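User: Let's play a game. I give you a shape written as tokens, and you guess the letters that built it. Ready? Here's round one.
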């Protein structure tokens, strides 16, 4: 039982009792009035009887002496009383002796012929007695009170009773209504509770459906991602495999051999840039941050941008004097700007204007100053549906072979990994503005000079320990380095490398980072303690460890590496 029901159940019989009470009050009122009327009537009869008795006494002598004139005189004394309707004095034998009627009509001659009184008349009789003998009769008719007067006498009283009954009845009515309202309230509360239960069920179902949708969206994105990677990689592998097949032919002229070798190098470079974009999107690209003045960078890139945009697109720059420099990977930042600009070019098929703006963007949540680089086009713009998906890897609206859908994913990955964000503002037919917001470092903090990059130069032959668990990559590195005239020793694990290094002297160690057992970072740490003079260069395709905790100041080269990169890194490490 709800609290509301508990309260109302006690009132269930109340309205009946209250209506009964009102009825009782009314009945009591009627009773009081009837009783009052009876008492009044009775008193009136007694009063009339007394009058009649007085008349009988005053006329006794006149009747005894049969003196009608004296009797009439006594009777006339009553004419003053307007309520007396008829008065008559009869002799012993019943003949009328004196009297009158108020309306002036004659009296009946005898007592026996007297008409019965009307409903509104009180009639009394008194014997006329002289010396113990009845000698005649007096009759007296008096008006009863007029009904109207009688009613008016009870009007106030009746009004009071009716009022009391009305008050009680209206309390009863109000209570009945209250009960009904309470019942309704109770049923509404019940309906509300049911609706609530229904709502909760629906919410649960909705949450489940959303979960399923998210799961299927994830699967779809994953499918798109793997499909896209497979497609692009297969393209590059086709070229590599085909070229390698041809290169194995013994009779191939040198000129063709070089062409196919170059094709392999080009495809491998493409494949490497694909993985680099993927890693940037996944925010797992080890970035090499530099302090860059955004305005200088745009000026430097002006030529490149002009060539990328073609003749039909005008480039306008609006460069605000920035208070600070951004700390970002230069190559990645350039690549992000180029990606945004190429999208703008593709959106302005009939030409247009590309505006590049830089501005101060206030402070980030952590209080670091921010700068913004906005690239605005006057192209076709984007629908909300496209806008929702532009950062998805492999999402493209361009025809097959034209776009891979990785451009903005790289921009997004780069921006977030650099501690910034990308803002997009676009409407169909109204162009688009893509804004890179990046944290920057106070100009004052730039006093510390940036060490100039050492020039790569030919190095004398060195003794190099190559640590690599992958046999092919190890052999490849050995070949490359031997080609440069170095003396190479190989180890296939961190433990083995440590063992060899303790026994043999080396000029530099080139170690893979991710290996089973002792990894490259650990090896470098131990060697750093045991042989602080021995430089270690780390090589990795991707390492969570380095992304999270850095390389401890050791140079890191990214796989896949080229001959020049490798020799530069080793030379640089040995120079330190
Ligand atoms: N400035 C723009 N104007 C109109 N649409 C744009 C613009 N920038 C991006 N888009 C839309 O976003 C999609 C995704 O862009 P993204 O750069 O990620 O891939 P893509 O340009 O299609 O391919 P990729 O850059 O890898 O060659 C584009 O296909 C295009 O539909
Ligand atoms: Mg693009």
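Assistant: Ready! My guess for every position:
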């Amino acid at each position: 039982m709800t609290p509301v029901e508990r309260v109302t159940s006690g009132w269930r019989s109340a309205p009946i009792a209250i209506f009964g009470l009102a009825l009782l009050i009314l009945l009591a009122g009627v009773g009081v009035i009837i009783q009052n009327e009876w008492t009044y009537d009775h008193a009136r009869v007694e009063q009339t009887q007394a009058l009649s008795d007085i008349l009988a006494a005053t006329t006794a002598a006149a009747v005894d002496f049969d003196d009608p004139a004296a009797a009439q005189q006594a009777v006339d004394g009553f004419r003053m009383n307007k309520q007396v309707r008829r008065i008559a004095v009869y002799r012993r034998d019943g003949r009328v002796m004196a009297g009158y009627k108020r309306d002036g009509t004659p009296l009946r001659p005898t007592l026996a012929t007297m008409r019965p009184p009307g409903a509104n008349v009180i009639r009394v009789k008194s014997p006329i007695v002289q010396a113990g003998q009845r000698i005649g009769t007096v009759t007296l008719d008096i008006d009863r009170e007029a009904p109207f007067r009688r009613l008016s006498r009870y009007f106030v009283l009746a009004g009071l009773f009716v009022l009391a009954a009305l008050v009680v009845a209206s309390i009863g009515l109000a209570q009945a209504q209250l009960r009904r309202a309470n019942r309704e309230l109770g049923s509404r509360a019940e309906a509300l509770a049911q609706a609530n239960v229904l709502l909760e069920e629906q919410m649960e179902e909705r949450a489940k459906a959303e979960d399923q949708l998210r799961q299927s969206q994830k699967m779809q994105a994953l499918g798109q991602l793997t499909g896209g990677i497979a497609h692009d990689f297969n393209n590059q592998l086709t070229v590599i495999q085909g070229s390698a097949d041809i290169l194995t032919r013994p009779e191939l002229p040198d000129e063709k051999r070089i062409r196919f070798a170059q094709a392999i190098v080009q495809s491998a470079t493409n494949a490497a840039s694909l993985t680099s974009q993927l890693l940037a999107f996944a925010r797992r690209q080890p970035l090499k941050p530099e302090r860059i003045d955004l305005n200088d960078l745009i000026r430097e890139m002006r030529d490149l941008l002009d060539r990328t945009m073609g003749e039909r697109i005008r480039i306008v720059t609006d460069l605000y004097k920035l208070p600070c420099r951004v700390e970002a990977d230069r190559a990645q930042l350039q690549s992000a700007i180029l990606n945004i600009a190429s999208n703008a070019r593709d959106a302005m098929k009939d030409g247009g204007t590309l505006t590049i703006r830089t501005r101060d963007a206030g402070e980030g949540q952590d209080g670091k100053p921010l700068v913004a680089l906005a690239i605005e086009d006057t192209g076709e713009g984007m629908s909300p549906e496209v806008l929702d998906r532009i950062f998805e890897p492999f999402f493209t609206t361009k025809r097959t072979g034209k776009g891979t859908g990785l451009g903005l994913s790289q921009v997004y990955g780069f921006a977030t990994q650099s501690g910034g964000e990308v803002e997009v503002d676009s409407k169909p037919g109204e162009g688009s503005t893509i804004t890179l917001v990046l944290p920057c470092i106070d100009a004052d903090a730039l006093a510390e000079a940036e060490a100039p990059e050492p020039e790569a130069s030919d190095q004398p032959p060195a003794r190099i320990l190559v640590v690599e668990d992958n046999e092919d990559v190890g052999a490849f590195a050995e070949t490359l380095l031997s080609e440069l005239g170095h003396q190479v020793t190989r180890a296939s694990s961190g433990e083995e490398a440590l063992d060899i290094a303790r026994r043999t002297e080396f000029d530099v160690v080139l170690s893979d980072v991710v290996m089973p057992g002792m990894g490259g970072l650990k090896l470098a740490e131990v060697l750093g303690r045991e042989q602080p003079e021995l430089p270690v260069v780390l090589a990795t395709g991707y390492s969570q460890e380095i992304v999270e905790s850095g390389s401890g100041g050791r140079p890191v080269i990214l796989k896949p590496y080229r001959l020049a990169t490798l020799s530069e890194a080793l030379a640089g490490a040995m120079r330190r």
